[in-house]
Amino acid sequence: MRGPAAAAALCLAAAVALHAAIDRWPAPAVDTPGLLYVRSPEAARRAALSYRGIAADVYWIRALQHFGSERLAGPGHVKDYSLLYPLLDLATTLDPYFSIAYRFGSIFLGEPYPGGPGRPDLAIALLKKGLAAQPAKWQYMQDLGFVYYWHLHDYHAAAEAFQRASEMPGAPNWMRPLAAVTLAEGGHRNASRALWTELAKSEEPWLRDSAVLRLAQLDAMDTMEAWKRAKDQGLNLPIPNDPSGTPFVLNPATGGIIVSPQSKLYPLPGQLEPPR
Amino acid sequence: MTAAIRTRELSKDYLVGFWRPRPYRALDRLSIDVAPGDVFGFLGPNGAGKTTTLKLLMQLVFPTSGEAEILGRPLGDVSIRRRIGYLPENPYFYDHLTAEELLDYYGRLFGQSAADRRQRVGKTLDRLGIGAERRLPLRKFSKGMLQRVGLAQALLNDPEVVFLDEPMSGLDPLGRRDVRALILELRDQGRTIFFSSHILSDAEALCTRVAIVAKGRLAASGTLTDLKEFAIQGWELVMAGVPPEALERVRARARRVVTIGGDRYAIDLPPDGRPEELLRELTAAGATPVSLNPVRETLEDVFVRRVAEMGEGARS
Amino acid sequence: MNAIGPVAAAVFRESVRDKVFYNLVLFGVLLVGASIVIGQLTAGQDVKIIKDLGLAATSLFGLFIAIFIGINLVSKEVERRSVYPLLAKPITRPQFIAGKYAGLLLTLLVNLAVMTVALYTVLYFLARGIPAPIQGAWDAPALDPALLKAVAMIFLELAVVTAVALFFSTYSSPMLSAIFTLGVYVVGQFNAELKRFDAIVDSPAAIAVAKACYYVLPDFSRFDVKLAVVHGVPVPGAFMAASAAYAAAYVAALLFGAMVIFARRDFK
Fold first, then answer.
1. What CATH code is carried by the domain that includes residue B273?
2. A touches B (3+ CB pairs < 8 Å)?
3. How crowded is the C-beta side of A30, counted as CA atoms within 13 Å?
4. Domain count, chain A
5. Of A135, A265, B108, C267, whose Cβ has the fewest other Cβ atoms within 10 Å?
6. Do the beta carbons of residue B285 and residue B265 sit within 8 Å?
7. ipTM of the assembly?
8. Residue B312 in domain
């Protein structure tokens, strides 16, 4: 039976070669948000039958991939984070206890463009959903406070959230003073520094990294103001390096220095008031 | 003395047809008695209702009307199954079990102890001529060997009554001879044998009594000698190498002589044609005997004639 | 009574020789492969995801075994007529049904046991080398004994599915039995939704039918404690006991139903 065997091998080789050849022509791009599979979280929940845990994991992985690829994409690509919230919403509907999904969402949904979608309202919605499933989870309440504080500058709401978090079982000791500081000093840089310093102790590595970056940014802002004050008093100090090692650049508009666009710390958080 | 097997007006209707099912009478008011120690031949053409009767007795199907007893107990008495054996037609077992494992499985159902099973299984397989194959999975068995395994499982529990549905089916002449010897051996051991067949010569060699069924009805029953149906109507003697001069003598005595290729002849003699004499003469003249068989009516012919004799009205 | 044991043993033996346990190889490959690959993808969620995957695969593979062996349990014997010499032995038809069921249950039990061991092994290697403080922050430990509760509930669920498959096998062809059994399983997963039908549909008749179906059909979603176990949410013993009783009630109903159907069946 050598004839059919040879024919089979030949046809397989042809298929492989054809595949390699037509790979160069991608399939026509269809304008649907990629790979959600199912749009509605309720539909996903029903479709997953009793395999919700693993389905949630799939959406979580997709969320990470989506966020990471958008964030790291080169300058020619217009960043579009529109899938981040839907994917996290799906993951958390399928698995209401999926704490990392809530917390990741809380940090990065609020991130202003181009670092993130700039949607603190979605971050709040996600966290409230998490609290509905687990009302005593202090980490979600803390994250809620963080979103109010950092992205929405609603210091009263932030302080209230920190206060409620501090009353939940298992909340760490620094919650209560944090609430107090937030209330007292609002947008004060020291309050922010206190918040970020605590977050830098988190067990989640990406949260730690974010916090360290924020602290470096706060240090940079301190340096910028100190340099400007010195210049206003007539001292022309040389332009220093920012905490990430990249030199500051002159800001023609203010006469002061600003973080260079090449720096890892760029862009700085916008409207923090100088110390009173 | 209680009959080993008794049926009274046993009937079975099947419903045929999908839209308006109508009853099809597979067995019509069968009444037979089998005495203990009988070798009872249950004969009939294919589709006569033989297998249906056996299935009714084994409670694989349930009677539409009528009753039956085995060893004095009604059908449905599970305890009776310890004392009987059953070989279905064209038996099939399990792909993955070996012959030994199958018998061991059935032995456990009989409640035999492990040691008892080991001994019985070995002995039964030996008796049925299954040697090293007993450790092969059953899916590798030929039809003839499956038949032997079927017989083995029917005899595993030393049954008092043995039911065999077409026991010769699938066997070569050597196998058929073995089974015949086995049945006679079982008879000598005092067991009752009830077997069905569509081959008349099987009954001849073995049975004390027979019943003939066709189209679901009993056509005749009694001992072999009672039934005129089995009277010999002629002989067929096949000889090879008959010298030409002897052939002339043969043509004088025979009703017909047919040449079967070469120098082989089929000689059709009348019932009183003394075939053994002719055999001796032709052998002395240098011919070789091939076979000598009595010629009888076929079972279908028997039934058709019986029904015609009794008239249409008698059995409706 | 002692006819059930040999029948069960025969079913188990046939399943083993029919190479049903090869699915374990696939299971092992899946778990090990996933654990190697996912490290890059999941931001530290490896243990959770392997637990999710392991439990989901255990449930799914078990489901296939329950259905595909279950639908053949009776119908194959009847079709091949190996049931003839069997029922001529001192065994009643109900004992035959019970023995078939017990044999498949045993097969499932062995299968699940091996899968559980494989899962714990993979989790052990996955968690090795991760420092204690990080492990302390997890919802549940890597080698969490509560996983056994999830597996036990999977077993209960499969016990009911097997009984459904066996029930259909007593009178349907394998193909139809597979479709019906799968259908019952899927509807059973959605069962909880039927209770809330009044939120979706207006017709009172439909709502009444839905409520009736909710109570009569098995609610398979109550056997799913995978999410709770993976996230360290406690599963009370009382809940497990109640679920076991629930499963037992359905299994008994289905087995008795199968026995009734099988009892008066003519084997043509």
1. 3.30.70.980
2. no
3. 5
4. 2
5. A135
6. no
7. 0.86
8. no
